[in-house]
Amino acid sequence: MQTLTGPVASDAIEGAVLPGEHLRNDLRWAVGIDSDPHRWLVEEQAVTAELRGLRQSDALSLIVELSSIGTGRDTPALARITAGSRVSVVAGTGFFAAPFAPAWALDADVDTLTRHLLTEIEEGMDGTGARPGVIGEIGAWSGEPTKTEERCTAAAARASLSSGLPVAVHHRGGLALLEILLGEGLPAHRISVSDAGTDSAFPRKVAEAGGYICLTSLSGDRLRDTLDLIEAGHAHRLLLSSGVSRVAEIERYGGPGYNHLFRTLLPRLREAGVAEETIRLITHDNPLRWLARTD
User: Fold this and answer.
1) What is the C-alpha to C-alpha distance for residues 192 and 170, in angstroms, rounded to an integer?
2) 184-195 per-position pLDDT tens digit
3) Peptide bond into 277 cis (omega under 30)
4) Helix pair angle (75-85, 44-58), 10° resolution
5) What is the SS3 assignment for 92?
6) Is the CB of residue 197 less than 8 Å from the CB of residue 220?
7) Residues near 277 by Cβ (< 8 Å), separated by ≥ 6?
8) DSSP readout, 128-169?
9) Residue pair 186/160 in contact by the 8 Å Cβ criterion
């Protein structure tokens, strides 16, 4: 897989993986939607300290950072976080949602958008040589994709098919975007769709389509949803993460932090009788299989 510091073999990642997090983002302002003073996370030192602590306490080995183009992504800051924490970071390219897209991308055709993504994938992000290892997080801000969001999603699929990188989909418009990706010929197992925990049928629909469903422990009844998927035979399509995305959610400001998955949901799964080999499958094997670059 492609990390900020270069390619890494899957078997070199021995510990847990958090496949759906944000280490640095800024969504406070966008075009056509209300501003939100809480929708940001710019706390490099605090985030670095949390990840370093998780590496020592819970063998955290890899984190997938899903702040893509137009969402405050800062590749140099991410490079400092991975160096300071000694936790590998996979960063994302892609266009999140239309209100946050660069002005030039709003009316760009799919080929132009695809070329831009492939340039970042092949040459590096934000004027650096650091390359992304995932396309996403992509989303549809209102839930129903706009024409711009449809084109950005098609570009994500084509860039994935060309580069071998996986695609991460935000829960906003998740099923509709999944359909577009599949329609472009992208295999379902190259796609992870995040879930907000508001529709109990949503995770199973993604898994039954052959995609990965990423449950974040900070939202919804994750114990119920996780057990339902395991009991339905979808453990091999399940990803688990804490889902931090805002400054109020990190430990420095009284939030649950990136360790929420390890301190809350995983102990409850063990109490419910989920075997360690299944937990290992979900927190290690599945995300590595999804992230692995394909030819």
Assistant:
1) 9
2) 999 999 999 999
3) no
4) 40
5) strand
6) yes
7) none
8) SS---SEEEEE--TTSSPPHHHHHHHHHHHHHHHHH---EEE
9) yes
